[in-house]
Amino acid sequence: MKIKGLIAILIVAVGVIGFASAYTVDETEQVVVTQFGKVVGTPKVEPGLYFRLPFFQNANYFPKNLLQWDGDPGQIPTLDKKFIWVDSFARWKITDPVKFFQTVSNTISAQGRLDDIIDPAVRNAVTSYPLNETVRRTDRVLDTFEVGLDDQSFSTDEGEKTAESDEEPVKQGRFNIRIGREKITEGIQRQAQPKLEPFGIELVDVKIKRVNYTEQVRESVYGRMIAERKQIAEKFRSEGKGEAQKILGDKERELKLITSEAYRTAQEIKGRAEAEATRLYADAFNADPEFYSFQKTLEVYNEALDQKSTVVLSTDSEFFKFLKGSDQLP
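The structure assignment produced for this chain is given below.
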């Protein structure tokens, strides 16, 4: 029984020791084994099952995938003395876990070192170039270029031209971009990477997330933008009024032309109708001149003689020849 108990204790001890000495590494991890604070052996970067001396050696795990660094937004002056808020971020990874363990020990301390190295690099890059270079990548014409300002130059705050530090002025909505935002971020990466190598860190990428004016300058820019758009609106209004007056003028001209043509046509028709009526009257009256004379005389009687008229004439007057007797009637 004692032998069986000892065997059981031995098996349990071996199991405990085996469990304590074994450790695993997955695809996203790398391990540095230390003994009393000193690195032992080579780092384990391949996934699998590994063993160490239990109770004496420790497995220190570090991420092998890309890690994120997010800088604090800060106010930085550009080369052309424009204060802007710059927010940047980066991606980094641990390439030498031994150096990383010996220098910064963990990712939290590494973030502080990244702050100390990348933030000054971003500041140096932004202060070395004008605002145009930080904002734009190329000097292509902006897709959002206002139609109403196609004959004007772009400007920044307080009416200053954005190309004031360039050799050539801005023309037809283009910026004279020599470096561009991509080259600036590449320069930040080149400047920061040598300083991170002693920590076993590789800086994979650095980007500027956001660029904005400071509050004071932003108000000035907004005011300028409002003024520009009011200018565009006023330009469109004046063009619209001019076009409206042109349309009204054309309408009046067309109306007068139509009216005059219609009046001329109506007068021509009226003239032809009156001529035809006169001809018909002449033909009718020429058929019986005595009857025509009788009818006209009666019309004169009707117009000249009424109950208030007094006329003194000789009975031999031709005016009353049709009133002397029925024998005078035609």
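Interim note for the steering committee: The radius of gyration is 54 Å. The first strand starts at residue 22 and ends at 25.
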